[in-house]
Amino acid sequence: MSSNELETFLKQYPSYKKTEALDKLRKTDYFRLDAGEHVYLDYTGGGIYAESQIQKHHKLLNENVYGNPHSSNPTSLAATELVEGTREYILKFFNADPNEYLAIFTSNASSALKLVGESYPFPNGRYLLTFDNHNSVNGIREFAHARGAEVTYIPVMLPEMRVDASQLDLELARPSKNGYNLFAYPAQSNFSSVKHPLEWIEKAHTHGWDVLLDAAAYVPTNKLDLSKVKPDFVPISFYKIFGYPTGLGALIARKSALSKLHRPWFAGGTITVASVQGDKYYLADGAPAFEDGTLDYLNIPAIEIGLKHIESIGYDSISERVRTLTGWLLQNLTAMKHSNGEPLVRLFGPATSEGRGGAVTVNFYDKNGKAFDHRFIESEANKVNISLRTGCFCNPGAGEVALGISRVELDVCFTSPDHKDKMSIDDFRLCIDGKSSGAVRISVGMVTNFNDVQAFLTFARGLLS
């Protein structure tokens, strides 16, 4: 890295200097990144945990004895206190009124979404969602289909991959009059990193829709204030915010919306009374009705530790770092051209850092305009210890639009007798006539620094000819 490049960057993004505390933090709490010479650019895939988080959690476990919370013995009560304290802290972190919202522990955002899907009263209703959604949001449509609900997708438009607002308004204005209506969309796309308007929440409420806001990709770098916007269901995965622990998420739900849900089964921990001979059960009130079996009570306290860690840094600093580095990455990567003037990359999503997050999704092309296989790009990045992600990122709707895969091609592919019961990714590539089935996602995050971005830009220049 030349000092001239850094000087140019700082002239264009002087606010980056306000985030210098993150560089100091990286040297202490995240020192293993530089010690291992890692260039980590997969923050949308998962956050990096701090050394201090591990130490605090280890100290808690090392100095106390905790038992299964489903009892009233001393160790059980100690665990219950920590679990309920963490539950309260989650609501506090998101500025959610505990009289209006509650936090349900899940294993991740996907399991939080499944809770909504399996329990929502879909008969005679509608499920409205955007093309740009994670597969765990898409998967809810199977519950909707099975119960006779109408399922509608709203397209996203190239080149920025933002939603067709006029069509969204049209669909929101015609909810089912004979059933319940659920509208689902991501606060931030995990494919294009587009930030979709939070104002849609109130607009949908005005027309009588319940709103599911997928916040998994949004909250690692943006403050979600549930006193200002009031979605009915908010799934999150904590490891995406602060790296540790994995295997824990939450469904933050409005109590009024939660009362509409009817679970299709019961389990240990979810009931007050269940009888074998009487063939009857009674669900518990509130969050416990949705928390199957024994909670991960030893790891749940690490959530509060992680949330406090983020608070000590501040979202303003995190957001500004991501904004400035993303702007520099976009500007330099999209300017790269082969010797004959052919651009090196094609970008999927906004070309500036405004109205988007820190994930930059592209495909790479040679000087003849032929796409490099995204798997080749990943394998080459691996050789220089750059961690990025390739594929469709569990977001097929956005991927199909970005990669120009048509409905006709998909219909032909999926109705082939050979593909009645199963299909491999190689089968799919043949179906779409050799088109790219994925892209390359470079995502910056909380402790990304200028050197990381420069390392990737140097790697990208090595693909020029």
Write up this protein.
With 465 residues, the chain is an alpha/beta fold. The protein folds into 2 domains: 3-47 and 315-461, Alpha-Beta Complex (Aspartate Aminotransferase, domain 1); 57-311, Aspartate Aminotransferase, domain 2, CATH 3.40.640.10. The chain has 19 helices and 17 strands. The strands form 6 sheets. A 4-stranded parallel sheet has the order 4-3-7-8.
Task: Offer a few descriptive terms.
Aspartate Aminotransferase, domain 1; 4-stranded parallel beta sheet; 465 residues; alpha/beta; Aspartate Aminotransferase, domain 2; globular; 17 strands; 2 domains
How big a fraction of the residues is strand? 15-25%
Using the coordinates shown, work out and report the CATH topology of the largest domain: Aspartate Aminotransferase, domain 2
CATH architectural designation of the largest domain = 3-Layer(aba) Sandwich
Class by SSE composition:
alpha/beta
Rg from alpha-carbon coordinates? 23 Å
DSSP, total strands: 17
Q: What spatial order of strands do you see in the largest sheet? A: 4-3-7-8
Q: What is the share of helical residues?
A: 25-40%
Assembly form of the protein: single chain
| Tally of individual helices | 19
Low-confidence stretches: none
CATH class term of the largest domain: Alpha Beta
Determine the N-to-C terminus distance.
21 Å
Number of domains: 2
Biggest sheet overview: 4 strands, parallel
In short:
The chain has helices at residues 3-12, 20-29, 31-35, 51-63, 74-93, 109-119, 135-138, 140-146, 165-172, 200-206, 238-242, 255-258, 300-313, 315-335, 374-383, 396-402, 407-414, 425-431, 450-461; strands at residues 39-40, 101-106, 126-130, 150-154, 156-157, 162-163, 181-186, 210-214, 233-237, 249-254, 271-275, 280-283, 345-347, 359-364, 386-387, 389-391, 439-443.
